[in-house]
Description:
Blueprint lengths: L1 H19 L1 H12 L6 H13 L5 H34 L7 H22 L5 H4 L1 H6 L4 H26 L4 H37 L1
Amino acid sequence: MLHTLIQSLQDFTMWLVDSLGHWGIFLGMLIESVCIPLPSEVIMLFGGFMAEAGKLNFWLVVFAGIAGNLVGSLIAYYIGKFGGRALVLKFGKYIFLNVKHLDKAELWFGRYGARAVFFGRVLPVIRTFISLPAGIAKMNVWKFVIYTILGCIPWNIFLTWLGYSLGSNWSVVEKYTRPISYLMLALVIAIVVYLAYKVWNKRARNAK
């Protein structure tokens, strides 16, 4: 089942890029940066392959990826900023978070926020969710934007170049990144199942 879901996500990603071109890359990277587990490796690698095939422009692929990352990250940032503390206080127990965790996140980002956002952009899984705690910690938005862009540039250029260099063999790299996609999707499924169980359990208690 998990393999089928991952394959469906990858097929959707490739269809998005193939159908919408540079806009598909922008949309795909935006979706991934809003904390939805769409595999960015597939998006940029396939974009690089499409550039090598002459169907897309190499630098527009890179730019679309960075722009999508930035817009999606800002959406996640503001979700964390304006709904963060209230979200933790009301629903935190359902996703294993509490006020102490939030206080630590705010302190951590207060000290290391810029570096955390920058290096988090090149770390699998972490780059998908790094914007939420940045928003919760109310990191300066302009600093967040700058370090998000700086962190996205090398990652997107590297993946696009790799897809361009490998050409039709780009999917070889995707096979090595697939375990990361499995981990991300498994995490999301676990959270959804846990939340559904908690809601069902609460309703069952109230019914009594």
